[in-house]
Specification:
With 80 residues, this protein is α+β, with helices and mostly antiparallel strands. 25% of the residues lie in helices and 16% in strands. It has helices at residues 13-17, 29-43; strands at 2-6, 59-63, 67-69. It has a three-stranded mixed sheet, covered by helices on one side. It is elongated and about 45 Å long.
Length: 80
Amino acid sequence: MTTGHPTDSRGPIPRRLAGELRPISKPDRDNLEKLVLDAFTRSGRWWRDDSQIVDGRSRKVYGAAPCTRAVVELVGAELG
C-alpha cells in the first residue's frame, strides 16, 4: 500500500517528488494502513477479518495530489 502526501512549500519539491525525501509527519504509517485495511474489511469483498492478512508492505511518499494505492493478492487456496 502506498499513500501519497501532497508537497507543501517547505523543502525542495523536486527531491520530494523524486522519492529522495519522504514524509515524516503525521498521520503515522500504521494508522494509514489500519484505515485502509478496515475499509476493505467493511466492504466484505476481500476478507472477513483483517486477521486473514499474512503479508504486507506500506509506505508514505510525496505526490502531486493525495492518494492511496493498494494491491491485494491471493496467497492461499482458502477463501471463506
